[in-house]
Amino acid sequence: MGWFWADTPKVPVAPHPTTPGAAIPPGCPMHESSQASPAVPAAGPANTEIPSNCPMSKDSPFYSAPKFANAGTPQPAAAPQKSSTLSKLNPLNYMFASISQERAPNQTVDLPVDRELSSIPRGDSEGNWEYPSPQQMYNAMLRKGHTDTPQDAVESMVAVHNFLNEGAWTEIVGWERTFAKGLSEGWDKCRRGEENLAFELAKAEMMGTVDEASEPRLIRFQGRPKELSPKAQIFQALGWAYPSKFETNPPFDRHDWFVQRQTPSGPKEVRYVIDYYSGPPEPTGEPVFYLDIRPALDSPTAAVERMMRWGGDVWWRASGGCSARAWSRSRLPLNLVKAILVIQCLSPLLCTLDRHGPGVPRF
């Protein structure tokens, strides 16, 4: 998908309309006297001004620049326009518009060409985004200069790539379902802490009470692996000052996702910043990744949303809500035991039925 360019068609110059009875100024080059032959203009300065009401004036819409070259003089051919690198990029993902599915030179491993459909809805059309095939991923990495990519690991790389994108979108959907209907409703959900917020979102998902018409859509995205976000820069500075508490490796990748939010007043574009961190591997050798996802500080509303998510959890813990919930959970097994004991004590009485009518206990 590139930019289309076209030459502007040349429109023939229309004759100058004159008002009947209107006097033509004597300085106009189109002024001719039917009784006298036109006089040869005397040599004068080149910047002689022409009256503004003359069709040959530069202020007139019918003005056309004079041509000093002879009609028979061949004009030099226009140099062919070279397409820039930006014109070859897809504006939706800032990648090359077309990535080949053909086998690369010197490729020794057969890679699948099937593309997996994601769960992320597109913002420019109906349907969902498609992930690249392993063959496309390998060709794209070669195009970027990563010639040392092991061919037998490309399929695993695609699987991890798709898994991380699905997790990132799930987190973004949680943000959108919390704040799409306004800050007031968002605070009602955030003030009970992150744990209860996650529970409410999962409950709405399981019960099918999510409004499908208000679900977000991904408009476009951009990879910026060489640019640290402001938050990542702050963490790196804290790690340098306090290595025992904040020391961490910089994120290995960064994405900016532009999401279409369905608000009560209409669609709105919201930019999300995603920092990808790698953690220590599992004992089984599986890699571990951490994703830091939040709305970009492009507006005061985004700043308030981030403050609500953080401040709501702090408020819930400081007000004792977290402790009260933990206490109720610790009391739950004892209450359950009491209920079981009561049922066991009443079971002989409930199960002893009168011969004259079922369901009536006999005393």
TrEMBL record:
Class of this enzyme: lyase
GO molecular function: holocytochrome-c synthase activity; metal ion binding
Enzyme Commission (EC) number: 4.4.1.17
A GO-annotated cellular component: mitochondrial inner membrane
Major localization listed first in the record, in broad terms: mitochondrion
PROSITE patterns the UniProt entry points to: CYTO_HEME_LYASE_2 (PS00822)
Region (Disordered): 1-84
Known catalytic reactions: holo-[cytochrome c] = apo-[cytochrome c] + heme b
Function per UniProt: Lyase that catalyzes the covalent linking of the heme group to the cytochrome C apoprotein to produce the mature functional cytochrome.
Sequence similarity: Belongs to the cytochrome c-type heme lyase family.
Name of protein: Holocytochrome c-type synthase
Natural source organism: Penicillium argentinense
